[in-house]
Amino acid sequence: MTGPGDGSTGTADADADPDADIDPEILEELEFWTGPEGGEPDPEPPRPDAQEIPRGPNPVVTAPSGSLVVVGTPIGNLGDLSPRAVAVLTAADVIYCEDTRHSRKLVSHAGIAGATLRSLHEHNEDERIDEVVTSVREGRTVAVVSDAGMPGVSDPGSRVVGAVAAAGLTVTVVPGPSAVLAALVGSGLATDRFCFEGFLPRSGKERRAVLAALATETRTTVVFEAPGRVAGTLSDLSEACGPDRPVVVARELTKLHEEFFRGPMAEAASWAGARSVRGEVVLVVGGAAVVEDPGVGDDVLSAALAERLGAGERTRGVVDEVATAFGVPRRRVYELALALRVGGDTEAAGT
């Protein structure tokens, strides 16, 4: 940046190349839409069999024939259905959907008449793979939608997409609303690094293992949960991650009663337990602090745990205090406590 007294002149500034510091890929995109001299963009040769439906200043190009198109649909607010999604669904030869009754309402809202809908849900996805691959191979445009959001993200569709791609056929995506990203960016928690766990296992060893992993996950974690299980899951997370771990409960995203609860895990569990949580729910869990492991052996930690657990103390309190006393990650101590508990149950069962 230049200013008075730095020896620069207005002429030099005027002659400077305004595109000198722009990423070449970004510059190429800008030139496509505005033209190299700020005029109209150069026309792009149409893809084979592609159709153009004019909608606004720029035409919406639908997918070429002989392709599988994954289409994002609204997660609540029907106004979020994009013009490109409407164009693709209008032109598709067949639309595979999680629930044909739900999707029939969506296409009717979009003004699409005569759409051919077929079911594609968790119970029949494997059975649909061959017919979808065959349809694409024969040159049809096949669209896939879920009831809400992006197909394949905790919804059916991923196995069909994998099969079409493995067959060397065209797969393309019409981006759309996502409960994962809407909850994440609205949470106020860190977004530079995050992971998605989907729905947690409901019970048993697998659930305990996932909770233990989340206890020391340093990235922000996004979790889906059914409304009736929110309070129980928050309570389990509070025990595994600690009562002070930040969490955000995002409810009814994009809908009339959209709501965010932000606070420590224990408070969130109390908040959910004191009310009837309704609607679609997404949990956004803050990442754990990075803790250096000083090299304390598992045998030392297990002995400290066994002594106190054997005396009847509560697991959560023992785990917190042992982790603090030895300066080790809480997840590590929690996993050892689970192992001691499982081992004790096994021994008891064998007597």
How would you describe the overall organization of this protein?
A five-stranded parallel beta sheet has the order 5-4-6-3-7, sandwiched between helices. A five-stranded mixed beta sheet has the order 8-9-12-10-11. It has a two-stranded antiparallel sheet with strand order 1-2. It is an alpha/beta fold. It has helices at residues 10-15, 24-34, 83-91, 100-109, 125-137, 158-166, 179-187, 204-215, 230-241, 265-273, 298-310, 315-326, 330-350, and strands at residues 52-54, 59-61, 67-71, 94-97, 117-119, 141-145, 170-174, 194-199, 220-225, 246-251, 259-264, 281-285. The protein starts with 9 loop residues before the first helix and ends with a helix. It folds into three domains: 52-177, Tetrapyrrole methylase, N-terminal domain (Cobalt-precorrin-4 Transmethylase, domain 1), CATH 3.40.1010; 189-285, Methyltransferase, Cobalt-precorrin-4 Transmethylase, Domain 2; 298-342. Helix content is 42%, strand content 16%.
Number of H/I helices: 13
Structural class: alpha/beta
The name of the CATH superfamily of the largest domain reads Tetrapyrrole methylase, N-terminal domain
**What do we call the CATH topology of the largest domain?**
Cobalt-precorrin-4 Transmethylase, domain 1
Q: Specify the overall morphology.
A: elongated
How are the strands ordered across the major sheet?
A: 5-4-6-3-7
Give the class-level CATH name of the largest domain.
Alpha Beta
N-end to C-end Cα span: 79 Å
Q: State which percent range the strand residues make up.
A: 15-25%
Provide the succession of SSEs.
Answer: HHEEEHEHEHEHEHEHEHEEHEHHH
What is the typical, i.e. mean, pLDDT? Answer: 84
Number of domains: 3
Low-pLDDT stretches are 1-16, 345-351
Strand count: 12
The level of helicity is: 40-55%
The protein's oligomeric status is single chain
How is the biggest beta sheet arranged? 5 strands, parallel
